Amino acid sequence: MVRPWAVTAMAEGRYTASRALLEGMREAGVRYLFANLGSDHTGIVEAYAQARSEGCADAMPELLLCPHEFVALSAAHGYAQVSGEAQAVLVHTDCGTQNLGGAVHNAARGRVPVLILAGLSPVTDGGELTGTRNEFIHWLQDSADQAGIVRGYAKYAHEIRTGRNAKQLVHRALQVARSEPAGPAYLFASREVMEETLPGEPGGPGQRQWWSPVAPLALAPQVADEVADALTGAAAPLVVTSYLGRDPAAVAALTELCELAGIGVIESAPMWMNFPAGHPLHLGYQWNTTGQNPLLAEADVVLVAGSDVPWIPSTNRPSPGARIYVLDADPIKEQMTLWHVPAARYARADLAIALRQVTTRIRERGGLDAATVARRAGRLASAHRAQRELWAARERPREDGTVTPAYLVACVREAIGEDAIVLTEAITNYQVVSEHLRASRPGSLIGSGGSSLGWSGGAAVGAKLAAPGRTVVSLVGDGSYLFGVPASAQWMARRYGAPSLTVIFDNQGWAAPALSTLAVHPAGATAAAGAGTGFAPEADLPGVAAAAGGAYAATVSQAARLPAVLGRALSHVRRGRAAVISVHVPPAAPPPAAPHHPPPVGPGQKEEP
Ligand SMILES: Cc1ncc(C[n+]2csc(CCOP(=O)(O)OP(=O)(O)O)c2C)c(N)n1
Ligand SMILES: [Mg+2]
Description:
Layout: H1 4-11, H2 17-27, E1 32-35, H3 42-54, E2 62-65, H4 69-83, E3 87-91, H5 93-100, H6 102-109, E4 114-120, H7 137-140, E5 156-160, H8 166-178, E6 184-190, H9 191-195, H10 221-233, E7 237-241, H11 248-261, E8 264-268, E9 282-286, H12 294-298, E10 301-305, E11 323-328, E12 345-348, H13 351-364, H14 370-395, H15 405-416, E13 421-425, H16 430-437, E14 445-446, H17 455-466, E15 472-477, H18 478-483, H19 486-495, E16 501-506, H20 511-520, H21 525-529, H22 541-549, E17 552-556, H23 562-574, E18 579-584
Parallel strand pairs: 1-2, 1-3, 3-4, 4-6, 5-6, 7-8, 7-10, 8-9, 10-11, 11-12, 13-14, 13-15, 15-16, 16-18, 17-18
Helix pairs in contact: 2-3, 2-8, 4-5, 4-6, 4-17, 10-13, 11-13, 15-16, 15-23, 19-22
Bound molecules: thiamine diphosphate (TPP) and magnesium ion.
Thiamine diphosphate (TPP) binds at residues 102, 427-429, 451-453, 477-480, 483, 507, 510-513, 588.
């Protein structure tokens, strides 16, 4: 649709490819452009300025300044996770593309749709075209293969070579990004192309309805029958899932199927809430397993529904005789070079549709007799109860007053209420967060879906922008908090009115690499002398947020004080101010030979009175 202001701009020779790109994004549903600007973006900056002066800026996405590109993409990632809507990120040439860093990995692995637009150093140097080279950096930013920086992760990468079809390419990139398995799409254009003036609206139908993502896929009827028969005839059927909860409808479909047939659910490395934690058929969580899960070993039919890592075969796996079915939008993980689950059937399908099909087939074939379902469910409910009793015991505060991770998560759970959106990047405490948060609502607990740390800093900003009425809470390791470029993320939170509560599991360093080493070398030199991954001298982690974003900042070491500090922090967040609390928890991997001496509390991280 050509807008009146665009007609005027075209007539006056001011309608540029940059304007078309921005308009195309807005038409495609992009509300925010998370941007880090450079000399390649003169067309974009000018287009926004013109639109503001003409009073038509709402035809473009709102420009949000992001002082770091990793935070920009993480914010778009968090926004898309909460809203389901793909957003856009603008970065500067090869430099900005490189600074996206691991956030591209997270978006790809997490199957999150996002459009990344990058500039390209000018392609002329003698004044041939508007935008020609006129700054020394233009020579330094020539790159042999700029898209190669993201090629291993982007679903789509394309250079816009003319502004004439700029809108078409925005829609095309977003259509690919949004089609399952979703992921990042990368467009790039030289400064001259972004400055190109267009005589009319650029090519093709611009309306969003012509560019919908590929329609969700159902199971072939015989596959639905096969899975239904296997689940009906099994002695101990089990579902394993990691990210089925990306679609709330799939959570409802799974619950219905499990209740109909008495099937238990294990969540494996869950980056989403997938099945209500309190449901008696919920059989717990497995992250980095060191031993065999007996419930997995007992299962004779295992339905893997939405999981990249349903188990870690070197430590934990189903019995060799178990019949396994893999249902997924991405059932053989085409991007993972080494991946295998020994399944009887791999089927590509939308999980909500597929699970409803299986449920329908079981019903149509007469269902299961009530006694069988009751026997199955009864056995699983006692396993569920035993787990919960164990977890409840772990939540009790220690006599010495120190804060354990389980107690910390329990306090957060009691403080935040049911409506909160919790982001987890708790690393060696992922399992503790899963077990003690008791997430029961779809979308109430999310992780990055990838493994590049720091996602939660920007993602919390994106999540709050997507759900301004909800409380956003991040549970994050001290290392991961620092990976998230907190100065940038917290500055954005204040500037754009997107405050959240961050709770840092401050175990004084990187526990994970230490535990990894001990798992491979249980009696090696690290076991005797420690891994050297501690963070002494302690940094004032909440102080970073106070300085950059005016956040309420507190450090807590004593269990008894934690509920009050959390309450105070939440009241700040609800009144529009971010809060960051660092909670001292025991080092997860203390060196056995040398006792741990906690460093003295520095001037910036005093205990609250
Ligand atoms: C970008 C990035 N760099 C390095 C790593 C490797 N790594 C995995 S866990 C970890 C430590 C994380 O520390 P923290 O958040 O404090 O969690 P903890 O291990 O202490 O529980 C590191 C460095 C990674 N996953 N991503
Ligand atoms: Mg740590």
